[in-house]
Each structure stands twice: as C-alpha cells, then as structure tokens.
C-alpha cells in the first residue's frame, strides 16, 4: 500500500483537484486499492513525510522532506502532465 500525500497552500482547493486526477491516473493503470491519499497543507508535509512514500504538491518543494517529491502543478496547467504522470506511475512501482 503506497501512502501518498497531496498538498497545496491551504490543503483545500488545488489539492482536491490534483487528488481527483491522481486517483483517475492510478485506477486506470490498475492500482485500485493499492494506495491511500492524504490531503494536507504544505506546511504539514515535513512532519508527515516519514510515513509517506511520496508527496505531490502544487507549491514549491518543502525543506526537510523525507519522501519523494512530485510537482502537482502540471495537473493544473496541463503543461508537462505526461511527464508527471509517468513519474507517479514509476513511484508506484518503487
């Protein structure tokens, strides 16, 4: 079971959009029931990263992070989305 953190500044708006897109990506690639997603504020990420496999964030990479980091911005802009999707799928195989 992969533990995924999804963060934005307030842990409400853009992270909700990104979570939906990540779930669609993972489920359409056969990862149903193989992951859990926790929606957080980016300020919470360093403290929660010890128990996560990776963080997807719509903000800059926080310091003191103890898990892999993926920029979630391409899920909002569409630019570079395929690269980020591949990165997430690669992390699921890790």
Description:
The structure is a single chain. By secondary structure, the protein is an alpha/beta fold. The protein has four helices and four strands. It has helices spanning 13-28, 45-48, 73-77, 81-93, and strands at residues 2-8, 35-41, 54-57, 68-71. A four-stranded parallel beta sheet has the order 2-1-3-4, covered by helices on one side. The termini are close together.
Structure classification: alpha/beta
Work out the radius of gyration: 12 Å
Strand order of the largest sheet: 2-1-3-4
Average pLDDT score? 97
Give the helix tally. 4
Which geometry do the CA atoms define? globular
Task: List the uncertain runs.
Answer: none
Largest beta-sheet details: 4 strands, parallel
Q: Helix share of residues?
A: 40-55%
In what range is the share of β-strand residues?
15-25%
Count of beta strands = 4
Order of helices and strands: EHEHEEHH
Straight-line distance between termini: 11 Å
């Amino acid at each position: 079971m992969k533990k995924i953190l999804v963060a934005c500044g307030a842990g409400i708006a853009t992270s909700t959009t990104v979570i939906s897109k990540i779930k669609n990506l993972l489920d359409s690639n056969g990862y149903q029931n193989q992951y859990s997603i926790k929606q957080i504020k980016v300020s919470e990420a360093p403290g929660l990263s010890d128990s996560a496999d990776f963080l997807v964030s719509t903000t800059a990479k926080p310091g003191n992070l103890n898990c892999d980091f993926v920029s979630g911005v391409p899920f909002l802009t569409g630019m570079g989305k395929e690269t980020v999707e591949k990165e997430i799928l690669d992390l699921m195989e890790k």
